[in-house]
């Protein structure tokens, strides 16, 4: 496919990403676009290329449910949000996040049983132990408070969990957390990002190779074993699947732990409702996922054919960014959308995307968030911020929204 010609614009489209004026709300322009132009052109800040933004809930689902869009980031027109030199782009192997059916389906099917509701139910007790261990360590540090909740709790919990699931030694967490961060940050140099990809690849390749001869009781070993009996993929695919799990499995949930904790501390009436009715927690988790929609532009696509969406035609070869932070604040679906309401029925949110690529780890994320918020506020009932919100640094520069630090005391 060749790149489409840049249309001659009457007006210069707005730049993307757009900044938030308030850390608890989407950029103000989202609400305006949703009403006036729910499928609107924009220019990517990273390279000035034109793309489409989709801001309405129904149109978001329509687009991501359409088999005529591709997730293949190597296609011209795909709206990349980090600068990647063309040569590097074409040389890196695709993970299944960026594959289309049928290749995508083969790998997704191999992994799906690992994330079933039943598996997650069986995992609850172990997640609870991990969360309790981390809180014991926080309490032991008590005398030194304030403590940074991001490095001493929000990141270790999901890192520990995904390490155990995959069979990755937790001692190595410092290294893979750094590589993952470099891969997902807009402002890291090309050279550093390239190095992070290379080193993470080599690290995971080493792990997979070791498990091929000495399997353990873990997800990577089960993938290898399954593939030995029912050959479906190559060694390099198992490496890329494992790498994808390791990267996506900790950073996202860590950001939600920190942001969700902050939001509940800043909305004491919502926290009080949860304390009075702990059974509200599953609803609160959905609402916090909706409220922050941390992977706002994480579902980039490119059109394979001309697609009518709303009032526009997205031409074959053009890039599209369905924005889940915009769709999740659509008042047609979520009345008074900027208000955090732990009693809201928010389950139809799109924080995990929609369609064939909808987050495979969503039940794991839900489990971790439920156990984390419940246990943290129960065991540290006097938890409070040690720095005013205005001084906190939010990850406005990253693909996944979050907090750099969250100093707390109790
Ligand atoms: C896909 C968000 C946690 C693994 C996705 C997508 C979103 C998302 C929006 C769709 C991407 C697309 O359509 O292109 C989130 C959020 C999380 C979270 C907000 C936490 C709060 C996790 C966890 C894992 C995980 C814990 C664990 C392994 C994946 C994978 C995919 C994915 C492998 C690709 C699925 C596919 O292409 O079929 N996630 N995720 N995610 N997520 Fe998550």
TrEMBL record:
The keyword Iron applies. Keywords: Heme, Iron, Metal-binding, Monooxygenase, Oxidoreductase. It comes from the Bacteria. InterPro entries: Cyt_P450, Cyt_P450_B, Cyt_P450_CS, Cyt_P450_sf. Coiled coil: none annotated. Pfam families: p450. SUPFAM superfamilies: Cytochrome P450. Belongs to the cytochrome P450 family. This is Cytochrome P450. It comes from Streptomyces pyxinicus.
């Amino acid at each position: 496919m060749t790149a489409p010609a840049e249309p001659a614009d009457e007006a210069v489209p707005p730049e993307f990403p757009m900044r938030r004026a308030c850390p608890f709300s989407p950029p103000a322009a989202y609400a305006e676009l949703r009403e006036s132009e729910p499928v609107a052109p924009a220019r990517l800040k990273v390279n000035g290329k034109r793309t489409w933004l989709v801001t309405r809930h129904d149109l978001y689902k329509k687009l991501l449910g359409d088999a005529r869009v591709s997730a293949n980031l190597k296609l011209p027109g795909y709206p990349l949000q980090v600068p990647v030199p063309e040569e590097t782009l074409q040389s890196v192997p695709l993970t299944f996040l960026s594959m289309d059916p049928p290749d995508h389906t083969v790998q997704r099917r191999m992994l799906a049983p690992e994330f079933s509701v039943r598996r997650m139910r069986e995992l609850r007790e172990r997640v609870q132990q991990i969360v309790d261990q981390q809180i014991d360590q926080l309490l032991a540090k008590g005398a030194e408070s304030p403590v940074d909740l991001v490095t001493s709790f929000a990141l270790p919990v999901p890192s520990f969990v995904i390490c155990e699931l995959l069979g990755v030694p937790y001692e190595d967490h410092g290294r893979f957390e750094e590589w993952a961060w470099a891969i997902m940050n807009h402002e890291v140099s090309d050279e550093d990002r390239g190095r992070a990809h290379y080193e993470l690849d080599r690290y995971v390749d080493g792990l997979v190779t070791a498990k091929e001869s000495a399997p353990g009781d873990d997800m990577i070993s089960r993938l290898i074993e399954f593939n030995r009996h029912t050959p479906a993929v190559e060694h390099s695919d198992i490496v890329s699947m494992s790498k994808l799990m390791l990267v996506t499995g900790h950073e996202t949930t860590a950001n939600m732990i920190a942001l969700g904790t902050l939001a509940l501390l800043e909305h004491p009436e919502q926290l009080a409702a949860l304390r009075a009715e702990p059974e509200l927690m599953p609803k609160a988790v959905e609402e916090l996922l909706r409220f922050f929609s941390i992977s706002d532009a994480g579902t980039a696509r490119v059109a394979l054919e001309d697609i009518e969406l709303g009032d526009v035609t997205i031409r074959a070869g053009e890039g599209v960014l369905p924005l889940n932070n915009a769709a999740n604040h659509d008042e047609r679906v979520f009345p008074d959308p900027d208000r955090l309401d732990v009693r809201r029925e928010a389950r139809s949110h799109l924080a995990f995307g929609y369609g064939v690529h909808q987050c495979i780890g969503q039940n794991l994320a839900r489990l971790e968030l439920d156990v984390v918020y419940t246990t943290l506020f129960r065991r540290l009932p006097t938890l409070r911020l040690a720095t005013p919100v205005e001084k906190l640094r939010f990850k406005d520069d990253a693909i996944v929204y979050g907090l750099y630090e969250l100093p707390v005391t109790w």
